[in-house]
Amino acid sequence: MTSERKQREEGNQFLPKFDTTGLITAIAQDSRSGAILMVAFMDAEALARTRETGLAHFHSRSRGRLWMKGETSGHVLRVEAILVDCDQDALVLQVEPAGPACHTGAANCFYRRLEGEELTRID
Question: Is residue 101 part of a domain?
């Protein structure tokens, strides 16, 4: 194991491992219920803005820019804690949502279950 890998996996220094496109996976989890609300991506700027403001910011791949969750709807995600996985290439944002997390108006983005070849609503 290289010293960089050892430091990343066992050390106490925050060394986020962005992918080749400069992104890291970020999972938003309701801090009270434990429900997974959404999965998005952060670049270094989104991570920095999230840490500075306490509000979840992401990199929108479709818009090609930084966006704050709830910037138009008001349904912001207040970040209470950031958990970092073992090799620092994924984050869990434990959040307090101010309304539905999904752009469809559903409480979270995981409102359907795959049953055979069909999707069934579960919310």
Answer: yes
Query: What is the extent of the structural domain holding 73?
Result: 3-11+21-121
Residue 98 included in any domain: yes
Binding residue ranges for Zn(2+): 86, 102, 109
Per-residue buried b or exposed e for 73-82, using 16+ beta carbons within 10 Å of the residue's own CB: eebbbbbeeb
Rounded average pLDDT over 53-77? 95
Local confidence band at 77 (pLDDT 50, 70, 90 cut-offs): very high
* Verdict on whether the full-model pTM lies above 0.70: yes
**Which residues define the annotated binding site?**
85-87, 89, 102, 109
Q: Is the pLDDT of residue 1 over 80?
A: no
Positions at the binding site for Mg(2+): 85, 87, 89
Q: How many domains does the chain have?
A: 1
Cα separation, 39 vs 108, whole angstroms: 10
